[in-house]
Design a protein that fits this description.
Strand order of the largest sheet: 11-10-9-15-16
Largest sheet: 5 strands, parallel
Structural class: alpha/beta
Distance between the termini: 48 Å
Number of helices: 25
Low-confidence stretches: 6-12, 19-98
Strand content: 5-15%
Number of strands: 18
Shape: globular
Helix content: 40-55%
Amino acid sequence: RLCWDSSRKTPPICYIFCPARAVPTTTAMASLVASIPARSIQLCGRHSVTAVDVLNRGSLRKQFGSADRLRERLRPRAFHRRANAVRAAVAAPLAAGGDSLRATVKSVFAEALTAVLPGEVQLDLNITECSNPKLGDYQCNSAMQIFAELKRKGDTSFSNPRSLAEALVKALPENDNLFASASVAGPGFINVTFAPALLAKQVHQTVRNSADGKAKISQTSDDTFAIQRVVVDFSSPNIAKEMHVGHLRSTIIGETICRALECVGIETIRLNHVGDWGTQFGMLLTHLEDQAEADDFKINDLQGFYKESKVRFDTDDAFKTRSQAAVVKLQAGDTHTVGKWKDICEISRREFEEIYELLDINILERGESFYNSLIPHVLDELVEKNIAVQSDGALCIFQDKEGPPLICRKSDGGFNYASTDLAAMWQRVNDVRADWIIYVTDVGQNKHFEAVFDAAARAGWLNKDDGAPSVRLDHVGFGLVMGEDGKRFRTRSGDTVPLKALLSEAQSRCFESLSSRNSGLDPQQLQDASRIMGLAAVKYADLHNNRLTNYTFSYDRMLDMKGNTAIYLLYTHARISSILARATEQDFASFSVDDVVLSHEKEKALALTILKLPDAVESLVQELLPSRLCDYTYSLCVTF
């Protein structure tokens, strides 16, 4: 008998039920499913059950026939008895620590649903946290949807959704130390409360698995299960320009996403797509030659030179001609010109690295120049596939829907951002072998990346030869940073706010605040504490907002000790650290699972909140919303 557990997202599980006398050997079963890309094959002879974790559900369906048809032959009670034997293995990740409570609840309800309605309904169960803790910890609210599906099929087994929900509750496992209670509310909402003993065991295991200070979290979702390598393109400042407040969001959001991906075990490549190529360097190099500046000028000098060169380029035809010639020399590899270009890049790079070190970010620079030699080949391929076509002298890519085309080569033969982005996409898929590529830029570039993604899909770049899922592409857009006046955050003169100055101001304000409190810290300790608090305040103020919306930058608000701020979180962390220090002194550092007794409701609430971390990280990874983790962290502090 073949039966799918359709509720599990990662990996999908198939149960193969065999008569006791006909249970195949492990070798025979391995041979039977040899054509299936299986992650594990486990034979449970005692219970006459074989569980196969597979990556390709379609392959198993094809080999064994219709899973739905076979499932209908199972009697509910018989299936339920056998499923109980497997349920412990399904919920095993919970006991091992580091996996999702929500996924565990979903697995158990999927088993109950199959026991009540074998083969009749295939539905992704909706499991949520209870909004009212008095009702329970988690809620399954799928009874109404399942009842509607049964009614559509003419099945009258249940009179209403509530009676179906009550049947599901009765089918839940008994005496397995998973739930302390399960009840039905309203028209069919099923609320469950975890057993304190299970929470205690899980908390103990979480502590043991986090001895190095890092949580161990497993992937539990379909979308990320087959993903091994991710490229995250973020920060991306321009050479010869200072990083400004606009780069803050891309840098902080991108780094947070990278850490979440690494937390669930995905290889993550951070790429800094800096603007280090193009006509602007012709202007800058020519102006620098005219000024005969020394090689040790500062980045602010480059800022001034850049503005001056732009004015000359727009007003002086002779200068413009010379600048265009400098670009030709640069692209042709002229030794002197390339040397000056490298000097400029190195000076900018040193300035960028100061900020990245301050923000604790390690990112690989791979600028526009890296992809320059690939552009002709990539565009030729798009032309051959009739995706890129000539239009008014330019090479363009038109989408099926209305709108301006993506211009990938200008009418004068020059390349642009689209040229580079297409070449970068090709290289990351074919050379880096990325399974997922994420671009972190402002929402204003959404249409641009939509066109680039469309071109890559039509060109067939995203398809894999081995039949694995195609490469996933995401544009993580974010809103603007606004001033308290409701306008775009700028200096009084109207310029963009330099990121270095912004971070320095936050640290200075923290230093003044700490100095006025007679904290007893020496000057160096004050500086260190101010740096930690100031940077954390800026980061958290950005991350805890929904990235898609604009947010108001306010030093006073982000440095407030009350409310959802980094300062409040750091204060709570200090309290916890103080308690842990005393626990170490009293030899509480090591303890057994029997020492964890959750007798008070607040203890149970704290344990439950701690164990929700995998759900929060998974939500961040799936939705690419760092605010999900901020919400969890704030909730944890409030619960503590």
